[in-house]
Amino acid sequence: MWSNFERSMVRRGFYHCPIQGRNRLRQSVALVQNGHGMAIDSELRLAREGGTPARTGPERPMFPGGMEVGDEELAALERVIRSRNLFRYYGVGDGPQEVSAFEEELAAFMGSAHALCVNAGSSALICGLIGAGVGRGDEVIVPAYTWNATANAVLATGALPVLADVDDSLTIDPEDVERKLTPRTRALLSVHMRGNAANMRPLVDLASERGLALVEDVCQAAGASFEGRRLGTFGDVGAFSLQFNKIITTGEGGAMITDRRDVYETAIEVHDCAGPVRFGGQPPSFPGWNFRASELTGAVARVQLTRLDGLLERMRANHARLAAAVEQLPGLTLRRSNDVAGDAGVALIAYAETAALAADAADALRAEGVPAVQMYSPDVVDMHFYPFWRPVLDALTAAGMPAPECPRTLDLVGRAVHVDVPPQLDERDVEEYELALRKVALGVLV
Ligand SMILES: Cc1ncc(COP(=O)(O)O)c(C=O)c1O
Q1: Domains of the chain
Q2: CB distance 225 to ligand 1 below 6 Å
Q3: 216 pocket-lining for ligand 1 (C-beta < 6 Å)
Q4: Tens digits of per-residue pLDDT, 102-123?
Q5: What is the whole-number distance in angstroms between the Cα of residue 243 and the centre of ligand 1?
Q6: Mutual orientation of helices 427-440 and 295-327 as an angle, nearest 10°?
Q7: pTM
Q8: Any bridge partners for residue 101, and if so which?
Q9: Ligand 1 contacts CB of residue 83 (under 6 A)
Q10: Residue 120 C-alpha to ligand 1 middle, in angstroms?
Q11: SS3 of 387, please?
């Protein structure tokens, strides 16, 4: 904690003038140096205490690829409509090609041997888990912080999700994974949360030493990488979502990638009850569902894939600026990244010292016009957090397992302040976000 004297000096810009090169802040510092202390006081007065909100620009919704949907997607849809080939496996004329073309393009982009486009990220996970051999009687280790669809996918296979804590990267803690292993463990499911790679080295080693399948949930980190390699290619399977919030989107949709031919072939049976028969093969041995993607989805997915690297570049640049600003501010500690350069940059996440301070900081940021949230509060139902995963908790109880306890996860997410970083933020937006963060760090957290 800082002394009152230090705090007042910080407010006046004498210490920690970190955000060099940003015009408004430079002006503020200059005003102080010229003896106009009142001016900076009023510039840094919190909006919720009567100051001017930091944000003047428009709202920037967090639909990265969604907000870029335009003429190219329209042309792709028109191509499908005019062909009248709306179903991926048969049609008229030259026949359908969009879904299979997307699969080829996605596999090439990610560097994997096979891709299967499906109707949701959940379906991609189910296909991948079953493809990798997971089924009734098995346990799969999943992080205690992820969208509930991850754990639900394990339940859908008949297996039990066993919860492991996340570490300060907010991805699964490899040491807790080791503690959670039992003779029934069949697979590890790592989730690259909010764009940040899980620590893949120890997970890959553990899976190979113990003969376990490794499934990567890349739904929130499409295109991101770890040590120079795209996420989703480290394990047996990578699962992606194309739902509207995701980096690239078709509204709803998903895809599974794998290098393993056997996984791919089983996934075809899981995602389509007619599976291999469509290719002249034998009747399927697995009672598959219908997770097929339509040609409309395939056509839009192809366009969105061409946007992916550009979206990542813009989010990473914005994220790097905001992270550099936060690093210089008191009261906030950035979420640790397992690979700074590979991070998708979708979210600025920083820990306050206590959950109460995180809630207060998020409230003050919202008053400044920055859509911030305290990630977890026990009173707010949010399906990213295991205390709300009723079907998972019930399944564990029914199996005679103790109720999961992941205290480190709840401590971290309770202290975490989360700000989306859309690629659409422009220079002025970023400057205003920086100003808001500075105001709140100095006015709330010091
Ligand atoms: C981490 C994670 N896993 C799985 C999913 C499921 O994807 P979908 O909604 O496309 O089924 C999501 C989507 O929100 C997700 O964020």
Answers
A1: 4-60+307-445 (3.90.1150.10), 66-305 (3.40.640.10)
A2: no
A3: no
A4: 999 999 999 999 999 999 999 9
A5: 7
A6: 50
A7: 0.92
A8: none
A9: no
A10: 8
A11: helix
